[in-house]
Amino acid sequence: MNKKLFLLSYLFFSAFTLPLFAQSEKEPSAEELFKQANALYEQQKYKEAIALYDKVLAKDEYFARAYNNRGSAYFQMQDFLNARLDFDKAIELNPKDADAFTNRGMLHASLGSFEKATNDFAEAMSLDPKNPSVYYNLGMAYFYLQNYDFAARNLYQCVLLDDSIAEAHNYLGFSRFLLGFKEQGIQDMTKALTLNPNYAEGYYHRSNAYYNMENYKLALQDIDNALKLHPEIKEYQNLKKAIQNKIKP
């Protein structure tokens, strides 16, 4: 009997003290919530990450990095309007944040606004001049604007800082080729394929170059390698047909 009373009194006590104990626990800080949100982002749980970034900003409305990272999560979910608003706010709060300029530049580029992208990437470069990815992004934006001179200049800076980026060597080579530096361009594209032998786009670009140089045998070898990796891509299929038409007896 006494044991039952003790048990009942324990449950009664616990039922009322647990909520009080929980209330007395220290709430996580904005920085702690920010780290939790970043972990969710890394797991590609973007919706959940956004919900936590919301809590961070409810605690600290001037937390620039939270705006930047929430913008990245919105970007991953293709919510470009909210992504742009967050990147703008991050830059307003911290105009020295190269990452925020880079992210906004990526947003502009993904929407085809390459002029705006070059402006943001150039600002990121001025803030973080030792970061090879900044030069790569700027070079690619110029490439899509068909400004191959500026594309080559920035991609060259990228590979000077990091010689291991196959994509940078590929587009540097293709830009140089289009500028008339054909042999040098071929060397750069070959370097890209040495770094990544499974780089289909690298084979495609070098095949294009060989086709332009009327070296159809090497062009066919490269486009065959590209098609082995990605047989579904129409551009690769069309280039192979064009090459085959040239080598028909």
Would you mind describing this structure in some detail?
The protein has 249 residues and is mainly alpha-helical. The chain has three domains: 30-95, Serine Threonine Protein Phosphatase 5, Tetratricopeptide repeat (Alpha Horseshoe), CATH 1.25.40; 115-197, Tetratricopeptide repeat domain (Serine Threonine Protein Phosphatase 5, Tetratricopeptide repeat), CATH 1.25.40.10; 199-249, no CATH class. Helix content is 80%, strand content 0%. It has helices spanning 2-24, 30-42, 46-59, 64-76, 80-93, 98-110, 114-127, 132-144, 148-161, 166-178, 182-195, 200-212, 216-229, 234-247. Helix 8 (132-144) runs parallel beside helix 10 (166-178) and helix 11 (182-195) runs antiparallel to helix 12 (200-212). The chain starts with a helix and ends with a helix.
